[in-house]
Q: What sequence folds into this?
């Protein structure tokens, strides 16, 4: 397979960037917060291989500096029917990467007449990020991502694709600003051969722990499970998440009970 992965043409986005900066200046005049930064998916993303497929999850908070610009974002992007990408870093950079790779993967899928292999799509993402590492005065794309999917050749697979464009296949991967808070929890509780239900609850608990400590992670938890039967989405609202530390337990809170949620 030979696919040309071009460098991104950011010159075409010049007028959009100007308009975006103008909108930021207007909003800054009446909404408190730091709008000097572009929207970022400062976040916690995670994917785990289980016995029969993969589960990929993320929180839903998007921040613009110190301002929470979106509380219900969907950071899990489908690249094909069997491969999904969890995004962290710059929202603009990761969306541009996912849009380009989805287009390339669709062309490849039409050519071979079936869903692409997970490692093939992972290579598309890796090449696009690596080939643009000199963008932005040598800073490269601010895109730390986790790719996961299932194919009939190798089953469930997870690939870590951090900033810079490296690519490593792993049994589980975690990234984003909240990941530093839960590495020890994942190391101590991950085990091979977990069922789908065990894996989903494992990811929910890990993400809830990160959201309890990381100011850039929050909102709800979104999960996507991929196996031989296809993909399934699941949304876990804040009221369903297990509480940690000083958090208020909302799972059994009923109307009129006197509880106050801030």
A:
């Amino acid at each position: 397979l030979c696919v040309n992965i071009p460098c991104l043409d950011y010159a075409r986005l010049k007028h959009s960037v100007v308009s975006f900066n103008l909108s930021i200046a207007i909003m800054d005049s009446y909404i408190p917060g730091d709008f000097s930064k572009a929207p970022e998916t400062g976040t916690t993303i995670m994917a785990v291989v289980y016995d029969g497929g993969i589960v990929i999850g993320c929180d839903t908070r998007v921040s613009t500096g110190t301002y929470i610009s979106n509380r219900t974002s969907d950071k899990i992007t489908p690249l094909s029917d069997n491969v999904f990408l969890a995004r962290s870093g710059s929202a603009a950079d990761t969306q541009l990467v996912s849009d380009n790779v989805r287009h390339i993967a669709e062309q490849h899928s039409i050519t071979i007449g079936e869903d692409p292999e997970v490692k093939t799509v992972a290579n598309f993402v890796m090449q696009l990020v690596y080939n643009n590492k000199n963008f932005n005065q040598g800073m490269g794309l601010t895109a730390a991502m986790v790719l996961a999917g299932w194919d009939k050749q190798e089953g469930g697979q997870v690939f870590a694709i951090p900033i810079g464009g490296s690519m490593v296949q792993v049994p589980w991967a975690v990234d984003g600003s909240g990941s530093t808070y839960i590495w020890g929890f994942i190391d101590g509780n991950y085990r091979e051969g977990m069922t789908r239900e065990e894996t989903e609850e494992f990811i929910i608990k890990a993400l809830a722990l990160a959201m309890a400590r990381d100011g850039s992670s929050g909102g709800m938890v979104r999960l996507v499970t991929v196996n031989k039967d296809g993909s399934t989405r699941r949304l876990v609202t804040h009221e369903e998440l297990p509480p940690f530390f000083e958090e208020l337990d909302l799972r059994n809170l009923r109307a009129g009970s006197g509880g106050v949620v801030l």
Residues 127 and 168 are 13 Å apart (CA to CA). DSSP finds five helices and twelve strands in the chain.
